[in-house]
Amino acid sequence: MNETGARPRRLELGIGAAAAALLYLLPTAGFSDYVMAVATSACAYCILAVGLNLVYGYTGLLSLGQVAFWGLGAYVAALAAVDLKWSIWAGVLVGGVIAGISGIAVAFSSLRLSRHAFAIVTLIFALLMQLIARDWSEVTRGPLGIPALPQPTLDLPGLGRFVFDTPARYYVLMLTLALASIVVVYSIVHSRIGRALVAIRDNEALAESQGMNTLHYKLLAVGVSAALAGLAGGLYVFHLSVVDPSIFDFAYTEATVIMVIVGGPGCFWAVIASSIGFSILPEALRVTDRVRYVLYGAILVAAMLVMPKGIGGLLQQRRIAAMRPRPGQGGT
Amino acid sequence: MSAAAPFFRVSGLSKMFSGVRAIDDLSFDLERGSITGLIGPNGSGKSTTIDCLSRFQSVDNGSWWLEGRELSHLPRHAIARAGMSRTFQAVRTYDSLSLMDNLGLAAQEHEGVRWWDALVHGRAARSADDAARLRTAELLEIVGLTRLAESPAAVLSYGQRKLLSIAAAMMAAPKLVLLDEPVAGVNPTMVLRIEALLRLFRDRGVTLLLVEHNMGFVMRLCQRVIVLETGRILADGDPSAVRDDPRVLDAYIGRSAAGRAA
């Protein structure tokens, strides 16, 4: 369907599993803490991008509020761990659930109007969340945020206590969540539900005329995407060890949107590759010091000029062109 | 509606656009298994009627029933699930999806597969997929697009997209299909193919109500023609009677020209 067409799915999953195994071996390669921290951040971005791709790429709804759900998950997990003394895992889970429910609420209120309203309302929701985080000091501790967050620990029966106290260990944790997110979104987009989401993106009126309750599907996509962002934010914040209003920085949204657009909206693997690439790129350009953001911008502009539909879109266009019947082959 | 209710009934349908009455107290019945043409000059309210009946336009007044079940208060998707599907004047397909998926989607919401089963591709989903695949293969064979089954709809010509959209409208075994200009903009060969296709569906028990400007097509295909003018029924009867009705000639080509023709 869509990107994959009739391509054997087993091969796709086999390559994915092999890549996942290699990624788990990364900490054994002796990379520095800095590299592992960048890899951890790439995993977090990957979750955000996969979630945004579900909403924007597959369903056609531009969400400018992914950072709101990410930050909401982060604050809920942090407050649950610090104020309520919950386990970090429970806090992260509840953060994901609350983010998902918030996503559905935001989508329900705006999608009854239009897709444009959805984009604007999600953006406003993100700004509102940042204001709340800054000004509701009794709960959020205001601009200073909540410092000294605990480190996640895992008690493995027979193996003792495992503390995620180094970037390499945290990377394994974020990678696991990233892979779980990839599996969830892959299952959705390759199911009848995913086919319905693409139908809504391609032609919503037609989908409705065929009996599809499009609002339900859109709420599902937004809810899953927001929950994933909330889970990612909730887990990542313990890596940062502090949460403050900058967790709602628009830069997170901007970076995620860039990853999806350059990867190709609706192209599953290309967006994952793009999220990894664009997480590493700003760090790789550090060698150029002050011009790194100029170079980053130049690369973006070049990518949009050469591939206006993204990397995946370019490949898809070529595949469609190859399938188009040539003159004399029929076609009415 | 009584037990002896007609197959499809429209009663008192009205719609205004900024003070202009597009449909004015329109009422008619349709017989099961019939093909009815809804014709009239531009602006007479034909497409608006289809849009209103399928709830793609809000209505000011009126009710309609399919097999005695009132549809007028239902949302669009529920109307389709009740057995009334439609095609659009500007042909619509899911361009990035294969022809198989285009047709599969048209039946998807009528198969009763729960979302969890759909997600894990459980038994109900697999069984529904198998049934849909058979029907899809059959429909693609009928419309002559089997060769392109796995291609995205974006590769199709305009005429082929028309065929696909009609096949999609038939995919969920509807009771009634509203067709908005099914042959507009297609070549004469394709007109004949679409005509044969619609006859086939009629023979399988599907009732058709079509809006069309191609009079030859309407006169050959329809058993009954309803002529609209300014949102009201001007004439209603079999094609030959309607064709010879001076009021219809007048509406189409103008009073003085009709007089000269007589």
What does this structure look like?
- The complex is a heterodimer of chains A (332) and B (262).
- With 332 residues, chain A is an all-alpha fold.
- Chain A has a domain of 219 residues.
- Helix content of chain A is 71%, strand content 2%.
- Chain A has 14 helices and two strands; from the N terminus they run ααααααββαααααααα.
- Chain A is globular and about 65 Å long.
- Chain B is built from eleven helices and ten strands.
- In chain B, the strands form two sheets. Chain B has a six-stranded mixed beta sheet, sandwiched between helices. In chain B, strands 2-1-4-5 form a four-stranded antiparallel beta sheet, with helices on one face.
- The longest helix of chain B has 21 residues.
- Chain B is globular.
- Chain B starts with 7 loop residues before the first strand and ends with a helix.
- In chain B, 47% of the residues are buried.
- The model of chain B has no long low-confidence stretch (mean pLDDT 92).
- At the A-B interface, α8, α9 and α14 of A face α2, α3, α4, α6 and α7 of B.
Brief summary of the model shown:
The complex is a heterodimer of chains A (332) and B (262). Chain A is an all-alpha fold and 332 residues long.
What do we call the CATH topology of the largest domain in chain B? Rossmann fold
Overall average pLDDT of chain B: 92
Q: Could you spell the SSE succession of chain A in H and E letters? A: HHHHHHEEHHHHHHHH
Strand order of the largest sheet of chain A: 1-2
Proportion of helical residues of chain B:
40-55%
Provide the gyration radius of chain A in Å.
21 Å
Number of strands of chain A: 2
Number of discrete helical segments of chain B: 11
Spatial ordering of strands, largest sheet of chain B? 6-7-8-3-9-10
Gross morphology of chain A: globular
Q: Indicate the structural class of chain A.
A: mainly alpha
Number of strands of chain B: 10
Q: Flag low-confidence runs of chain A.
A: 2-6
